[in-house]
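Could someone model 2-aminohexanedioic acid with this protein?
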Amino acid sequence: MTRSISSLVDGRPRADSPGGTITVRNPADLDDTVALAHLGDATTFVDACRRAREAQPAWAATPAPVRGRAIQQLGRLVEANADALARLITREIGKPIAEARGEVQEVVDTCSFFLSEGRRLYGMTVPSEMPDKQLFTFRTPVGTAAIITAGNFPVAVPSWYLVPALLCGNAVVWKPADYTPATAEAFAQLFLHAGFPAGVFQLVLADGAQTFTGLERALDDGVLDKIGFTGSTDVGRRIGELCGRHLQSPCLELGGKNPLVVMPDADLDLAVDGSLFSGFATAGQRCTSLGTVIVHRDVHDDFLARFEKATRDAPIGDPVQPVLYGPMISAQFAERFEGWLDLIRDHHAVHGSTATGRITAEAPRDGFVGAPATGLYYHPTIVDGVTADDDLANTETFGPLVGVATFDTFDEAIALANGHGYGLSSSIYTTDPLHAFRFRERISAGMVSVNNSTSGAEAHLPFGGNGRSGNGSRQSGVWVLHQFTRWQAMNWDYSGRLQKAQMDVADVGADLDFRLPAEPRRVAHSEGDGEGEGEASPPAVGATLPAASASACATRSRACSISSW
Ligand code: UN1
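Reply:
Sure, complex below.
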């Protein structure tokens, strides 16, 4: 069945398609047409922003616990429709059904967290420096937020923005990826049935160029107060520039080149499990997907042999079956991935499958699950011998490709892990807590896993990155509240007179010349030396330290030994 999908402005489908139409095919079965999307244009986008802005004040005036109730109802609706939503995700982007179910669960988890935030959304009471005066802080909504998201997580990542934004009393205009209109429309229907008032949730289907023009116009017209964007670093940069001109700070979640460091003391089987999942789940098309395994020279060959075997044995294919991964999420991603395979050079060694590139009858994959010709399936590719200067070390290759680099010293591992300038997720496999904490201190990523994959963040920890991965904004948990509220400070003087801060403040009279009387210093003499206690003299410079300090030195020298590998 082909769905006909349109923007939903004030809950009503827009019959026109000024931005053209897009036909979306199931990437696991290209003969299956999933949806025909009618795209809006910049005017549709600005119109949606204007209507959202009109609806927002009444929503902001709704008590936060009542807003939380709408989030609760949304969570219930998502749970009740979980199977249909997960199956639609699998059909539209080819995500394996188990992962699609996990993604829907991530929406439920997000709702569960924020439904109670409606009963918190705490401000503070703060003491004043003057009597009969009280200070307070309040969180106020930002206004209208445009949320622009990618299609690799077509419901979970949007929910990280939409749910807290609405809970905080904002109105939202959601522009999903143009290649996931069916999932977007289904998810939008759940919002529209969850009890939010008309107008606070708008869905606009549009391509990137029309959306950018729409953002420019909406900002110029003063009908947009916040932008949340998940997507490429280049587009994030342009959105950042645009927001800067309007004195706004966007919430940007951009790409990653996520490192996974394998120390010589690591449990190698565990490291292989983590590399397999974060390298190839969602066919490597997560922002958190593994970019490069950075493995110590002493365990390189052993690790690579195990990783190679696990990858060769992994079931790949039909996403409704239990597979490691299915097809690429759409034709445009498949095409781009083929370009990135060109970054493999002569000094690299390729492992992991029976061929590279698309899985076809001519380039088959042993053990493929299903019929490869019907979909956009690609061989898993492990590229060994990656060095810091390689394009492969510095380019986000969104697809089933994992680089492997070797290090001798911890400093080298850190240089490889940070050198590309991204900073989203990272991982270290080690059995030594010292290595784990040293890694945490020195890695530039916003997220650090220890003995766990780079993917699979839980929905209530701060999610986001630094450098090429984002502008430091964070989603999820209480941290995202900073994105969708602003602090308002209030002071209330009930003294009945003007009390001037800093000037009319009572002082305390202290005697700052007071000193405690000096005590005589004494040391105990050793037994039988025939003398009593005597006056101590300060330890000579360079004298031997007591035992406690000596053990601290031992710890320090162990720490130093990391950099000598
Ligand atoms: C993304 O790819 O943009 O941590 C989000 C993970 C998922 C979310 C990924 N929970 O891999």
